[in-house]
Amino acid sequence: MTCALEFQDVHFAYQDGPESLRGISIAVKKGEKVALVGPNGAGKTTLLLMCNGTLRPTKGRVLLDGEALAYDTRSLREVRRKVGLVFQNSDAQLFAPTVWQDVAFGPVNLGMPVDRVKSVVSRALHDVGLVGFEKRPPHHLSGGEKKRVAIAGVLAMDPEVIVFDEPTSSLDPATAEEVMDLLDEVNHSGRTVILSTHDVELAYRWADTVVLMDQGEVLSTGTAEALFSDVALLHRARLKPPVVMDLFRELAGRGVLSREAPPGNALAFTDLVERQVLGRVSPDGHGRIYIADVGDGAADRVKTLLSSGTVERVGAMGTKAKRFAGDEKIALDFTYGVIDKCLLRAVNGENSLVLTSGGMVEHTVGRIAAYMEESGREIEVHLI
Length: 384
Known about the structure:
The mean pLDDT is about 90. The protein has helices at about 45-50, 75-80, 100-110, 115-125, 145-155, 175-190, 200-205, 225-230, 230-235, 245-255, 265-275, 300-305, 320-325, 340-345, 360-375; strands at about 5-15, 20-30, 35, 60-65, 65-70, 85, 160-165, 190-195, 210-215, 215-220, 290-295, 315, 350-355, 380-384. The protein folds into three domains: about 5-235; about 245-280, no CATH class; about 290-384. It has 15 helices and 14 strands. The protein is of the alpha/beta class.
């Protein structure tokens, strides 16, 4: 798989200060979800600002699509079209009188024709669930809505890579989950997504690859399961393990569970406990999972299914699906971790409906298929 971004022995020091980055060498594959994880002062934000040329290494190189970044005005203009950056503080990114003008700022500065600007701004606002917010002043919005406007402004540029600095910082738990759903949608639309966080729970369940950082250095790079099961490494990075990993280690240490590969999420943990403690897995194929793409014409099909009494649980993945559920007055049982929760319900004999859209439909089908292969269970899946 080719690299979207690559950092080769990157060093950086702010004026009159010590080095903030010391020999960073990592490669980000196209289409990956990558989390830079570390405590405050680890150098995460500084590294993210290297991605689109906001900061220039004092030593080393940053490569985009295999080509070293150039820092002249013309080259940086193209880099920032390909790599979008969403700041931790949305207020630092929003400045126009209206949401529409804020989202349109980038496309206008790229010299897009007026009709094209209207098209990309409308699509970006639709993608983040802010249709109808066009004339509203950004400073009147909630924290989560401001974050969506900032993301829409980046999406309007149609970048290949989107970089997020602490995307859930200062957000309440429900809004944070909505933002992470949106990041999944962005990724499944074909874009590479990189974020920084000190939240190990978020990184553990979200990232394909974790880059563990401390004091301007990369301590290790790998899967979340591998890195977060290394107690000595986490201690060095001044981080605590995810709850699932902590519980697994305690039970394994007491002999309740065998010391096999640690579970990646609550679903895998439940299966592990059932298999090792009860000595069996529950019978196959109890419940079914229905998947609905909430595009045009979905409302009638979804209402018909729900009115039949076939489905006990309903979950919505992504901004569009949640807005659809709100418009259609559909009560939601699951608003995050939807696929795994529906799989848990299916194993327990309940039928579920997943509302989602676009590339998330294929992702949902693939995740269920992967679970069936891993667990040996057979679960009926129906696209409606």
